[in-house]
Amino acid sequence: MKELRVFAKLFIKLFAIIFVLVGLVFIWLLTYEPSTKNDVIIESEEIVANDDWQPKDAMAELPTMSATVKEGYFLIAESSKYMGPNAVRAEDRYSGNNLACANCHLQKGAQAGSGSWVGIIERFPQFGGRGNREGTIEDRINGCMERSMNGKMLPEGADQMKAIVAYMNWLSEDVPENRKAEFKGYPKIKIPAVAVDLEKGSQVYQKECIICHGENGAGVLNAVDGKSYTYPPLWGPDSFNDGAGMNRVITSAEFIKSNMPYLQATWDNPKLTDEEAYHVAGYINSFSRPHKANKEDDYPNKKLKPVSTPYGPWADDFSPEQHKYGPFPPIMEYYKNEYGITKTK
């Protein structure tokens, strides 16, 4: 009889435990929300999608572009034909050479590391040292028109300006936040502590550049029209002028490191070393090119002038030769110590 009572107590305790467990399961079922799990999965899928995201392919999407965006595309892709020396109407000839905007802004402005226009619209207005003021995207475009394109400014209200801005807006749509940084400007290089060695630059040019740009840097004309370029000239009368950013060794080296040789290098998988890009940039910029008037008016605050700007005046006593070919670290150190300004180019 005593054993039966012990067994009954154990049974009651076991039943109580089971009852509590069943109650807990019941409460969990009442409060469980399947959407919570799905939300986590969706968020994970969004992250993967961002990693797989690619900028728009302008050529593939031409049929679906609006008329204005499409006009902008042709203006930047075939600049000399539509707003340069080969434009049908004289009043449309704004650029002064036969380059296309897309000769430098690769993949029609979509390639990271080549001064891409992906996401560019939201970066403006922004302060620019060259004018010492806040500038609009239209101001930035006209900076290229006067320097890289060796021409004249587009009127802000011109159809061409509106179309180019519309194209940039189109490229900038739906860019994931975590992908924006890679499309901004040019990745930095480690600036060598020596001056440009023109002989080393020549060797790099002969090995990596001559096949596209030619012995004399004149580039390769388009086989169809014989006027625009498949591969642009790097110096000479039809190249960018001496007021362009590409005429600065550091800026040019950053572009070259991230993009050249063409179709062999990317910003995250370059072919050339920092030193090779640096020396070949100096070699390219050792040759003559069109002259831009009134360059002395650039950078009203001379302290903001990039150290590799090859034309004066400057806010220092370093020689024109050193400003053109380096070494640049001593100039950078001077600005840091004298003015508290950290220079990167």
UniProtKB/TrEMBL annotation:
Recorded hits in InterPro entries, A to Z, give:
Cyt_c-like_dom, Cyt_c-like_dom_sf, Cytochrome_c-type_DH
Q: Which residues form the Cytochrome c domain?
A: 196-288
Q: Which Pfam families match?
A: Cytochrom_C, SoxA-TsdA_cyt-c
Annotated Gene Ontology MF terms? electron transfer activity; heme binding; metal ion binding
Read off the SUPFAM superfamilies from this record.
Answer: Cytochrome c
Q: Where are the transmembrane segments?
A: 12-30
Name the UniProt key words of this record, in alphabetical order. Heme, Iron, Membrane, Metal-binding, Transmembrane, Transmembrane helix
Where on the tree of life does the source sit, at the highest rank? Bacteria
Q: Which PROSITE patterns match?
A: CYTC
Protein name as it appears in the record: Cytochrome c
Organism the protein comes from: Maribacter aquivivus
Show the taxonomic lineage: Bacteria, Pseudomonadati, Bacteroidota, Flavobacteriia, Flavobacteriales
